[in-house]
Design goal:
The chain is mainly α. The chain has twelve helices and no strands.
Length: about 260
């Protein structure tokens, strides 16, 4: 005979399953840092101040996603809540810095348009695709953080909305890492057009699979935060036609100062 679980008991079980979430978050942070390592540290001195701030802000967010569940698992609830307020500042900065960097994609697109072949295989539409998927991901990130605040009275829901943001921010870092490997193997030439497609089509399945693996491990496959992360990352497969549209490109050039 199966006994029906009360809501409080369901909540306790859900929280208990998330006790070691912080350990798994370490793995995600390592993956993110590995992906961006060469792109950031390889030309460290030539990076702009905005790039440095953006990198360390993202690093701080991943560290936050590790420390918060660790504090909770140790019963340090008040410290967890205090740092949670600090986390809101980091999240806000993450959104603002990401939006402020969008103009760089248009600058690169214009350069590729005006100087054919000088950016190797990269064509203008590629940078518009990058810009639009980043818009989708940062919007999803902001929504997930808002939902984590809304669900703060439900620790398990709150934790999973927060954890899902790790999979909404990892694409640029991991994608650049895979793209650097691809270009390192096949060369930075205009003929290597596969560099525009293959790295992205390798990156997103990795992120989606990782999201589903985590969701399965923590019994969150049906959670809306899981499907938000999966759906936002899958958007890259439908954005390309829009990125190639001259009308869409001119629209973004007209609304984003560059």
């Amino acid at each position: 005979m199966r006994l029906a679980l009360t809501e409080p008991l369901r909540g306790e079980i859900a929280i208990e399953r998330l006790r070691d979430l912080w350990i798994w978050m370490i793995g995600v942070m390592i993956l993110m840092q590995t992906g961006i390592f060469l792109d950031y540290w390889g030309d460290f001195t030539s990076n702009t101040w905005a790039v440095h701030i953006h990198y360390w802000n993202a690093t701080a967010w991943y560290a936050f996603l590790i420390s918060q569940p660790w504090l909770f698992s140790k019963g340090r609830i008040e410290t967890h809540r205090t740092w949670g307020m600090v986390g809101l500042l980091i999240a806000g900065a993450m959104v603002l810095l990401s939006v402020s960097q969008l103009f760089r994609d248009i600058v690169f697109a214009n350069f590729a348009r005006d100087n054919p072949g000088q950016m190797g295989p990269f064509q203008p539409w590629f940078f518009f695709q990058v810009m639009m998927i980043e818009m989708v991901l940062i919007s999803a990130f902001a929504f997930a953080v808002i939902m984590a605040i809304v669900k703060r009275q439900s620790p398990a829901d709150h934790a999973w909305w927060m954890a899902s943001t790790a999979f909404l921010l990892i694409m640029p870092a991991l994608g650049r890492g895979i793209q650097n490997i691809w270009i390192g193997i096949y060369g930075f030439t205009p003929e290597n057009t596969a560099a525009l497609y293959t790295p992205a089509f390798l990156t997103q399945p990795i992120i989606i699979s990782l999201t589903l693996l985590f969701a399965w491990r923590f019994d969150k496959l049906k959670h809306p935060a899981t499907w938000l992360a999966v759906g936002a990352n899958a958007m890259i497969y439908v954005i390309e036609p829009f990125a190639k549209s001259p009308a869409v490109q001119e629209f973004w050039r007209s609304v984003i100062p560059h």
